[in-house]
Amino acid sequence: MKVLVLGLGLQGKAVVHDLEQADVVTEIVVADLDLQEMQKFLERKGYRKCRAVGLDAARDGALQELIASAAPRLVISMLPAEFNYPVAREALGAGCSFVSTSYAGRVAELDTEARANSVTILPEMGMDPGVDLIMGRLAVNELDVVHGLYSYGSGLPEPDCAADNPLHYKITWTFEGVLIAYQRPARILKDGQEVTVDGGEIFKEEHGHTVEIPGFGPLEAYPNGNAIDYIRLFDLGSEVRDMGRFALRYPGHCRFWSAMAGLGFLDDKPLAIDGASISPRKFLIRHLTPRLQFAADERDAIILRVVAWGLKEGRKRRVTYQLIDYRDLDTGLFAMNRTVGYTASIAAQMILNGQITAPGVLSPTRDVPPMDLMRELKARGMKFERRLEENEDL
């Protein structure tokens, strides 16, 4: 079967690499703006199933023309999030299934039409969102009553290569996206009350806590995004008292970025400096990006952990699911690329081979076979663990 992959960035490269190994995929059309660079990359990798085509996704009609001419069975969008809806719209119009790693957003509006036309649309199939949601479903399914759920996710340099810069941090996806997220408000549930943490305030000590991860030591956890949505996503009841979504960083990270936010370095309003105009955030992106790169022999790590607690048959129970992955130095793919791109590829293969058949706009929390996905990630070298605790003191 033929697959069209839009976007050959770092995560897109992981998608193509994984699809190349898949028996169910016979041809991969890869589309991005720089045709020559794509062709050089595909030739260097020796991929046999791939064909590169140029695409300016912002040009009117370009997506429709490409999907019509390529005639794929399924489209995977690894383009920036603003293209998620237009690509899904064009895929639906052509009768193609659609997979992306971006939040659903407006794509959810296509559900009725997708059902009517027996088309499968599956957004949110990356690392976060994606694997975190599936692990969350596994955890809450082990409880009759859920009292709380904490979800943790992070991309870090592994400890051996984290100490060569003062931030103990290196870049595996757009640094602009990182700094924008540092200004994003967070919503948590604490002791049954909704709490909103303003952007720039997420790093303050009163909003965080410490998590011990074997092999990494104590890590700082700070609020990251909207955890209140989990109550709806997992169909939880009024017994929920605590709900949190957190990112993890090495010690000292929160104190540093709290100070930087307080000093205005995350602001995006341009400043006039010696005849030039640049925002503090843009300056940080330009200045720090080349200084926070991985060497060819250094590895990043992805940590995903979901902890849910409550009651099972009247007894207190806490269940933990955890996924850890590292950069593959043979392929050069970072753990961030693998956990995002491989997850999208696996989801696409599940649709192509008939494991996922439902029409409409689907969700990882209800429509993806959870243990099947986790087995596929383990088969690609990722470490997946489950821990169960039952104790009246929990």
Please describe what this structure looks like:
This protein is of the alpha/beta class and 394 residues long. Helix content is 30%, strand content 28%. It contains 13 helices and 18 strands. The protein has helices at 10-20, 35-45, 62-70, 84-93, 111-116, 131-140, 175-181, 229-233, 253-262, 280-288, 335-352, 364-367, 370-379, and strands spanning 2-6, 27-32, 50-54, 74-77, 97-100, 120-122, 145-157, 186-190, 193-197, 209-213, 217-223, 242-249, 271-273, 276-278, 300-312, 315-326, 360-361, 383-390. Helix 2 (35-45) links the parallel strand 2 and strand 3 (50-54). Helix 1 (10-20) packs across helix 11 (335-352). The longest helix has 18 residues, at 335-352. The mean pLDDT is 95.
Topology:
Layout: E1 2-6, H1 10-20, E2 27-32, H2 35-45, E3 50-54, H3 62-70, E4 74-77, H4 84-93, E5 97-100, H5 111-116, E6 120-122, H6 131-140, E7 145-157, H7 175-181, E8 186-190, E9 193-197, E10 209-213, E11 217-223, H8 229-233, E12 242-249, H9 253-262, E13 271-273, E14 276-278, H10 280-288, E15 300-312, E16 315-326, H11 335-352, E17 360-361, H12 364-367, H13 370-379, E18 383-390
Parallel strand pairs: 1-2, 1-4, 2-3, 4-5, 5-6, 6-17, 7-12
Antiparallel strand pairs: 7-15, 8-9, 10-11, 11-12, 13-14, 15-16, 16-18
Helix pairs in contact: 1-11
Key features of this structure:
394 residues; alpha/beta; Rossmann fold; Dihydrodipicolinate Reductase, domain 2; 2 domains; 7-stranded mixed β-sheet; globular
Uncertain parts:
none
- Summed over residues and divided by their number, the pLDDT gives a mean of 95
Proportion in β-strands: 25-35%
Shape: globular
Q: Report the end-to-end length measured between terminal Cα atoms.
A: 50 Å
Total separate domains: 2
CATH fold topology of the largest domain: Dihydrodipicolinate Reductase, domain 2
